[in-house]
Write a structure and sequence with these properties.
The chain is α/β, with parallel strands linked by helices. The strands form 4 sheets. A 5-stranded mixed beta sheet has the order 6-7-8-11-12, sandwiched between helices. Strands 2-5-4-3 form a 4-stranded mixed beta sheet. Strand 6 and strand 7 form a beta hairpin. Helix 2 runs antiparallel to helix 6 (119-141), helix 10 crosses helix 11 (220-237) and helix 19 (383-398) runs parallel beside helix 24. The two termini are 17 Å apart. The mean pLDDT is 91.
Amino acid sequence: MYKANIPDEIKKQYKYAIEKAREDRPRYFEWIKNEIEIAINLINQFDKIYVIGGLGSRLIKSIPTFYNQFLATYDGPDKEEIQEDELLQNDDEIEILLEYAMNIATATPNNNIGVIPTQENIEEIYQQLSKIKYNINFWELSAENPVGGNEFDHWLRTNIMQDTINVRGDGYQVHIQEIYQEIFHPFDGFLQQYYGFDSKDIYNTILKLDSLVYSKIGNPFGSTHSHKRLTEWMEEIGEELIMETMMKTGKHFIRQFTEANPDLYDELAPDKVFSHSLDRVESYGKVFWVLPKNTKESMIFEKLSLQFGDNNIFFEPPKFRGFPLNDTLINLKPLIKENGKYYHLSMNLVFRNIFKITEELIKSADSVYYENTFKGNSNSNSRDNYIEQKTKKQFEKLLPTAHFYHSLKYYFFENGQNKETELDILGISDDTVYIVEVKAGELNTKHRRGAMKGLKDRLKETINEGSYQCHRALKYIQESPNPTFDYVETGTKRTLTIDKTKIQSYFKISVTFEHFSSISANLKYLINSGVLSPDFKWTWIVSLYDLMIFADLIQSENEFKEYLTHRIALYDRNDIVFMDEIDILGFYLKNKFPLGQEEKNEIIQIVNYREEIETYYTRMGLGIPGIIKPRKDRI
């Protein structure tokens, strides 16, 4: 926990900077546009595969891998021999800047093929893009309140836009993989019928892309990936045919392998699997070139790719040409195709968008099927129904001593009428009731660009509606002498009556598929913005992905109730700053609760407490042995 007592002088300087930015916004806007044009010209004067490759190589150095994570934990006698460039190179901006560069580069044709930039040129482009990103963030921060809105609407709009600009993933790979496969498996027949491949093919192909790039990097990690490709090729071709070809042509089996995998071939060393340094710009054309192995992979690569010039929508409208939040195709088509070759230049972009990519394939094939069968509630296997069932399973894992029911109906007297209404999930343990609503609504591109009416309407449909439904169910339970719910289990209608004499505490929980952590953390702002009714605020709002983390790490119902008690109390404080639910979980696991009384002019920043949790999931996903699951510290 970091207590920030911000000096008055700093506050004055910040206020002055905001005021100056607001004084002449047209001039500031034109300056930003000019800086974007500089970036466009810097990128376009070179072969853009190598420009993007230069930034892509920096991203590779900043991504946790089995190799750099093993080295980070290695404690052998020769650990001093580990080279600095073999370790993880932290760079908080590179993923954002790389994707911005990809957007700019793919908006126009690649007119300077063969003009190779230097590392100094790539650094200049990196710094220019970083300058634009910083000023776009400040431009939005210093904007006036939205038309007809207030300072809280401005806060809401700014937070959503900065989340979008700064790229935040929804969850950890192990959880994304689990949910992806479970959501899309029921629709594999549909995908197979229309495209000739299914969600498993899409997932396996996307997962393979990184390995194809790593296999050409000149370090032990790259060697393991190239060796894997070699053994797969040998199993596919067969030892007998390899030997027969060697006898007929005199070609060594390595040469046969590299000729079949030309991205690993070098004419100066044809009998060697060639690898490259990420610091050598000339090698990027080979490093990021990825080859499909079979017909299915070829079809998937084609669906995932665009060519230079295809993304011209990123330069529209002309007034906002090249602004980071413009529409783009690269989220759905993250591979670049040039002269018949495919390039995988951003190691995170494809996997981060795997849900959008697969949903778009279903929608493009049949929009009616997408809306009525894939989404909605009419199909028992729909995405929306799955999210509710998955939420129930996570609570059952988190709280195995409680019993959870779903799709319950009850009668509630409201506005002079006795209405039948529903509750998604109800959990009951020995002395506690958990009232749970699940919302599958997501933000679209316009919402993420700060279109206030649509954004606030969608937040009302998710955050406010879920909180209201929890509030309504709790009110029914508290006001009814014998609260009764009807539900169906194994095809039989059943009735549940809550014995309130045993209940000591109630918790309201709204689970969302969209990750709202940065805004749902500050319910007072949502109330003042008109998104959330003040009557419903005592609801824990959590994403399904974050709930999966709690189900993994919380050890008992007592721990969970203790966490919720402290967590919900934060809604009533004015001195807390945090941007992520998992920071609060990490804070709790470190025994930092309870907090003291609020102090004037003092801000408590709960940041970086998720690092141990992130390290755990990263290393678990990489298969590193001996990792220890984070647990609550014992006093």
